[in-house]
Amino acid sequence: MPHITGAVDASLMELPWEIPLSAWPEERIAALPRGLSRHVVRFVRHNGTVLAVKETNREIAYREFEMLRELERMDAPCVHAVAVVTRRISVSGDELSAALVTEHLAYSLPYRALFSTALRKGTLNRLIDALSVLLVKLHLNGFYWGDVSLSNALFRRDASEFSAYLVDAETGDLHEQLTSGQRSYDLEIATTNIIGEILDLQANEDLDEGIDPFKIGDRLESKYSKLWSALTETEVFDSNIPFRVSERVRALNEMGFDVGELDMLSTPDGTGLRIRPKVVDAGYHSRRLMRLTGLDVQENQARRLLNDLDEFRAVRRDVIEDESFAAHEWLTTIFEPTVRAIPRELRGKLEPAQVFHEVLDHRWYLAEAAAEDVPMPVATASYVKNVLPLRPDERAVLGRSLAEMTAELPALTDEFGTSFEARDPFENDNTYAWGEVPAPATTEPPVVRRATTRIPAPERAPLSGELAKRDQDAAEAAHAEQDDAAESEESGF
Q1: pLDDT in tens, 167-220
Q2: What is d(CA 360, CA 159) in angstroms, rounded to the nearest whole number?
Q3: Could you count the other beta carbons within 10 Å of the beta carbon of residue 126?
């Protein structure tokens, strides 16, 4: 029997641990996109969720499990460790590798799944920015990664940016505080690995031609250095000190960080104040939104939602003055109706907060084209009809089976009729959420004309006997039509 450590779910024992992970039955596997890994990794369906299972060395599995649990206690962006499985014995009596079990991070994707044909420069820059923020957050917690790369992180859409999450911590180590040498070496490893990954994409022609891999490496170093300096550098103020301190804190808040503690020390001559942030926590906007609305979203999404909330307060200032009351009104009259307007079959495309962000963007473009404000219900209906159906499904809670992923499409010549049933034209619109249901149009069902690219076989020439018989049949049919016409004239019809 396998030995499972860490999990409180006894049903984990039901998984086929006696089988090598690479040979697990298809009905257990969720076919989700995977990043590059030196180990065998599979996404596994289990009790309505998806688990990521990685085969590895027993000691490494336990160490990574403890590392992820400790990082999670620090609120660091990482996957949730579920269990370590050891004492796996195959049916033939062979010892199998230990397994580390983590939860699949919903709506997350490896970087290679974020592009289809060519990774554009703008997308790649945002991934690098997200990775630099992740590295700074981990370093602030005293975590030395040791193998920083795009492949060892997962990315989730966060408004117009991305958020990065640690997914592979087996080479990491926790310290009370990292030295400058440790941080520099981690950053050097990150730059080397990422340039290698970009060059690999370039060799496979999966990269926009205008991207320079070495400039991408420089961007990571630059972004990391600027953010680290902003969060940790010491400043000296010699005038208007209260205002300058407040400005420093506000600037960090704008970057998404809370300042929990400050180190303040008078200068030797007593004319100034030396200030340095001591405790800095990420998630300033997400915590504020949680406090006001109860919505648990990512940092940039929270920033965008708070901006819309502030605009809502500005418009309704004559009615809504209290921030908490305004937040409740905004939540119940703006955010929730927009999210409820998304048809059930499309709700797995993106997170609700991401959908709301994109609806706001879509509304802006519609207003620009119309040269006037566009109501939120109209913008939502247009987004649901024209934008959301084209977006890839990023939730992937259960994923599709391997059979579904590889199933062939029906033959082109298969016909299913030449018309289809007319659906309610407002079925995918958001007007239901606002209680306004327009009467559907009473137009005729559209006709679908199908065509095929199959070239029909040439008609063969009839034989002489067949030709004579065809002529005789045609003559008999002509005589019959003449007889029918004559009978009709005689009867007066």
Answers
A1: 989 899 999 999 999 999 999 999 999 999 888 888 877 777 778 889 989 999
A2: 10
A3: 18
The answer to whether residues 366 and 379 touch, using CB atoms and an 8 Å cutoff, is yes
Q: Mutual orientation of helices 213-232 and 121-140 as an angle, nearest 10°?
A: 40
Q: Is 91 contained in some domain? A: yes
Domain match, 57 and 73 both: yes
Which of 56, 77, 104 is the last residue before a domain boundary?
Answer: 104
Structure-block tokens of residue 203: 């060799």
How many Cβ atoms from other residues are within 10 Å of residue 137's Cβ? 25
CB neighbours of residue 21 within 10 Å: 20
Using alpha carbons, list the distances in angstroms from residue 20 to 56, 57, 82, 89: 12, 14, 19, 9
H helices of 261-351, in order, are 284-293, 299-315, 323-330, 336-340
- The answer to whether residues 186 and 196 belong to one domain is yes
Task: Evaluate whether 393 touches 348 at the Cβ level (below 8 Å).
Answer: yes
Number of domains, the chain: 4
Whether residue 200 sits in one domain with residue 153: yes
Instruction: Judge whether 483 lies within some domain.
Output: no
Measure the CA–CA gap between 323 and 421, rounded to whole angstroms.
49
> Out of 34-43, 273-282, 382-391, which region has the weakest mean confidence (pLDDT)?
34-43
Structural domain boundaries, residue 27: 1-104
Q: Which two tokens stand for residue 29?
A: 């596997």
Percent of the chain with pLDDT strictly greater than 90: 32
352 shares a domain with 310: yes
Is residue 48, in this structure, part of any structural domain at all? yes
Tell me the mean pLDDT in the region 435-445: 47
- Per-residue pLDDT of 122-149, as tens digits, reads 888 889 999 999 999 999 999 999 999 9
Question: Does residue 43 fall inside a structural domain?
Answer: yes
- Give the tokens for residue 300: 């940039």
72 and 50, same domain (yes or no): yes
Pair 413, 47: CB distance under 8 Å: no
